[in-house]
Design a protein that fits this description.
It is a single chain. The chain has three domains: 38-130, no CATH class; 131-236; 255-328, no CATH class. The protein is 77% helix and 0% strand. The protein has 17 helices and no strands. Helix 9 (152-166) runs antiparallel to helix 10, helix 11 packs antiparallel against helix 12 and helix 12 packs antiparallel against helix 13 (239-252). The longest helix has 25 residues, at 85-109.
Length: 328
């Protein structure tokens, strides 16, 4: 380090009774004169990734996004500094994780364009980090955007890429990739392919342990496993299996989990429609919608409910129209 520069900033820090802002500025000067000066920011960002990946915890998506703003500004600043190769690799992995979390929130909000953009950035960061599990996670999560917003073929393609990146060893990303593939194939009407992927998902999930099963946006806990299979069986029209998965998921769902509970209830309403009871299906869906806090009346929940409207429109157009009117 530059000794004269170091002594200069020390003198600035210790002279007089400077304000807190001046003291903080002096620390920054001292820190920048030292080698490895990004260590504190890297440690903070690592902790931020761990903290944010815990999910909503009862907070609305827009609120969580706002709370991440400061960390995103710091991440951008740190990425623009020069680093050693090892530090850059570490930072790229952290960036992939944090950026991927933003993409998940944008997906849930229904902002498809921004979700795609953030996931693409997450994938670039994951590739730079060389962490194939991080890349597989970003790809599998990315696949859920086209999956949930009407493009199952694109979803299946991303999910297959995620599975290839994850490799053959059981992992949370491999399980998620298989689950998303199952849902995409079910949505496309490939019954045998979907059931095959459901079986693969179950096999992988049974082998997961430790951090791989963490109840976070980065893990694959059994609760999320049952949520995915509920959707797969709902799309396949296997209503009894879907009901079983919904019950299992709800049994493992912690309060408040507003969005998860709403999506499971919409799955149940869709199953009721499949069984020939569109009136009660619409009634249930309308009840779910009316009970939702305003902050959740959009994005994924609205999309899933609109899909149900389309499903029952042919057999019960009046009921479908009434349900659609409730979404306004």
């Amino acid at each position: 380090m530059d000794r004269r520069r170091f002594l200069g900033v020390v003198a600035t820090a210790t002279a007089g009774s400077g304000t807190l802002a001046e003291i903080a500025e002096a620390r920054q000067g001292i820190d920048s004169a030292l080698s490895g000066s990004d260590a504190g920011d890297l440690a903070y960002l690592e902790g931020a990734f761990e903290r944010h990946r815990g999910g909503y915890r009862g907070r609305a998506p827009a609120v969580v996004l706002g709370q991440m703003r400061g960390d995103l500004d710091l991440l951008r600043a740190v990425l623009n500094r020069p680093h050693t190769a090892a530090t850059r690799t570490h930072l790229a992995r952290i960036a992939a994780g944090i950026v991927g979390l933003v993409a998940i929130i944008q997906h849930d909000r229904g902002d498809q364009r921004e979700a795609h953009r953030w996931f693409t950035t997450a994938e670039r960061a994951a590739q730079e980090s060389g962490d194939r599990h991080m890349l597989a996670w970003a790809l599998a999560r990315h696949a859920m955007v086209p999956l949930n917003y009407g493009a199952p073929e694109a979803a299946a393609d991303l999910a297959r890429r995620a599975g290839a990146a994850a490799g053959r060893a059981p992992s949370a990303s491999a399980a998620l990739a298989a689950a998303v593939t199952a849902r995409a194939l079910a949505s496309n009407g490939d019954r045998q392919g979907a059931l095959r992927e459901v079986a693969a998902t179950r096999t992988i999930a049974e082998q997961l342990e430790g951090a791989e099963t963490a109840d976070t946006w980065f893990g694959y806990p059994m609760q999320k496993h049952h949520v995915h299979l509920s959707q797969a069986f709902t799309l396949l029209g296997n209503t009894q299996e879907a009901y079983d998965e919904q019950d299992a998921a709800l049994g493992l769902t912690r309060a408040p989990s507003v969005m998860t509970r709403a999506l499971l209830d919409i799955d149940r309403a869709t199953c009721m429609s499949t069984e020939g009871d569109p009136a009660h299906a619409a009634e249930k869906a309308a009840g779910v919608w009316e009970a939702l806090p305003t902050a959740y009346r959009g994005g994924l929940v609205r999309e899933r409910t609109s899909t149900l409207c389309d499903t029952i429109a042919d057999t019960a157009p009046t009921v479908a129209q009434e349900l659609r009117a409730a979404l306004v």
